[in-house]
Amino acid sequence: MEENGALWLTIKDLPEEERPRERLLQHGPAALSAAELLAILLRTGRRGENALQLAHRILQHCEGLSGLGRIPAHELARIPGVGLVKAAQIQAALELGRRVAAAAPEERPLVRSAREAYMLLADMADLEQETLRTILLDTRGRVVAIPTIYVGNVNTTLVRPAEVFREAIRRNAVSMIVAHNHPSGDPEPSPEDVALTRDLIAAGQLLGIRVLDHLIIGRGRYTSLRERGLSFATPSFSQLAPRT
C-alpha cells in the first residue's frame, strides 16, 4: 500500500507464512514472538502502521513484556494506535494468562503411562501433515506444556535436537515424551523413527532432560517405543508419579 509516496505493508501484504495468525495455526503459539502474539490480539494497526509494527512499538514503549504487564489500561490506551478497545483486549489477555499461571498444579494432567500420554495427543491422528510434539513434564510427572515442534517430514535429516529441546529448556521441564503422527494411519515405527529417538535420548542425557518415550500415533492407535523395548532414560512413568 502506498501513502504520501511511501510504501508500507499491511498484514495481508505479507507472505502467508509470515502472517502471525497463520503462523500460530501452522506451528502453534510457542513458535511466535511476543510481538506476533500481541499483533494477533490487536488484529489491526492504524494508517501507515500494521498490527505487527504497532505491537513492536507497544513493547518498545513498555520496555518489554514485564512492562506491558504492569502498565495501567488508561496509559496503554494513550499510546497512538491503541485506544480503549485494544487496551482492554490486551489487559484481558494478560489477566487470563495470570490466572492460568496461578491455577493449582493439580489441575494439570498427570502422565503415568504411554496410554495417558496418548490420550493427550489423540487429535494428532487426524492431522494431514506429519507433526512432532513434545509433552513437557515437571518433577512430579505433571504436564507443563505440549508444544508443537515440527510440521512436515519428521526424520533424522530434518529434526534438530536443539529445536526439540528448546521449549523444555525454556520451561524448566525435567522430562519429556516425544510424539509424532503417521498420516498414513499406520503407527509402525520406521528405522528413521528409531534413529531419531536414539539421538534425542542422547541429547537429553547431555542436557539433563529425560526422554521417557516416543509415541508414534496412527489412526485410532499408537505405538510406544518404550513398550517396544527401546532403552529410554529412567525413571519410568510410574517412578515419576507422586506418591499417595
List the helices and strands and how they pair.
Layout: E1 2-3, E2 6-7, H1 20-27, H2 34-42, H3 51-62, H4 65-70, H5 73-77, H6 83-102, H7 114-121, E3 131-137, E4 143-145, E5 148-151, H8 161-170, E6 175-181, H9 191-207, E7 210-217, E8 222-224, H10 237-240
Parallel strand pairs: 6-7
Antiparallel strand pairs: 1-2, 3-4, 3-5, 3-6, 7-8
What report would you give on this structure?
By secondary structure, this protein is an alpha+beta fold. The chain has two domains: 2-102, Orthogonal Bundle (DNA polymerase, domain 1), CATH 1.10.150; 108-240, Cytidine Deaminase, domain 2. It is built from ten helices and eight strands. The chain has helices at residues 20-27, 34-42, 51-62, 65-70, 73-77, 83-102, 114-121, 161-170, 191-207, 237-240; strands at residues 2-3, 6-7, 131-137, 143-145, 148-151, 175-181, 210-217, 222-224. Strands 3, 4, 5, 6, 7 and 8 form a six-stranded mixed beta sheet that branches. Strands 1-2 form a two-stranded antiparallel sheet. Strand 3 and strand 4 form a beta hairpin. Helix 8 (161-170) crosses helix 9. The longest helix is centred in the middle third of the chain and has 20 residues, at 83-102. It is elongated and about 60 Å long. The N and C termini lie far apart (63 Å). The model is unreliable at 1-8 (pLDDT under 50). Residues 110-231 form the MPN domain. This is DNA replication and repair protein RadC.
List the domain count as a whole number: 2
**Percentage of residues in strands:** 5-15%
What is the approximate shape?
elongated
The structure class reads: alpha+beta
Number of helices: 10
What is the name of the CATH class of the largest domain?
Alpha Beta
Helix content: 40-55%
- What CATH calls the topology of the largest domain is Cytidine Deaminase, domain 2
Please describe the biggest sheet, giving its number of strands, its sense, and whether it closes into a barrel.
6 strands, mixed
- Radius of gyration using CA atoms only: 21 Å
SSE order in H/E notation? EEHHHHHHHEEEHEHEEH
CATH-level-2 architecture of the largest domain = 3-Layer(aba) Sandwich
Low-confidence stretches: 1-8
> CATH homologous superfamily of the largest domain - what is it?
Cytidine Deaminase, domain 2
Q: Give the termini distance in whole angstroms.
A: 63 Å
The tally of strands reads 8
